[in-house]
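Q: Could you fold this chain for me?
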Amino acid sequence: MKAPIKKELMKCFDRELEARWPQFVVFESERDARTWSWKASPSLVFFVTVQVLEGKEQFLVEVSWNEIAEFPWGAMGKVKVESSQGRERLGRLWESGPCEPVWDVLPEKTARQVQDLDAVRQGKSIPADLPFAQIQPRIMPLVRDAMDKFENYGIPLFRRVAEAHGITSLATGRD
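A: Sure. Below is the predicted structure, expressed as structure tokens.
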């Protein structure tokens, strides 16, 4: 993902999380991802991660938990709520097919990638990307859609995890 798009994407996620779920705070930031955490109890931490896809103008969201304040790196694909840790891509909570849902800032570019690759192989030029000023207005609606999906799929998962860990009341900031 191009740097200006990624910067705007993360700013939008910061704003949306602060507005919707202020209990999440930045946990760590890596080259292609940013993670927020919420210590729901002394023995349960929830995480939300936004990961940009390398070489594409796309991103995905992950939800995870751990009984200690460490990111559960080895828990991908584990969503048994009674487990000490779990981690899954948000899109996998509603989609089970071979294609994983991602959010695409430039779907027209994604659609033409095969043609662009063929053009490069043949020594032809490829269309330039839109200017950032035309891309920027697309970002917040995608972030809001991702946060709506988080509210509809991620938060209910976190509630089930909390209940399985003996937490009877989980104030999510939207209650």
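A (continued): The first strand starts at residue 25 and ends at 29.
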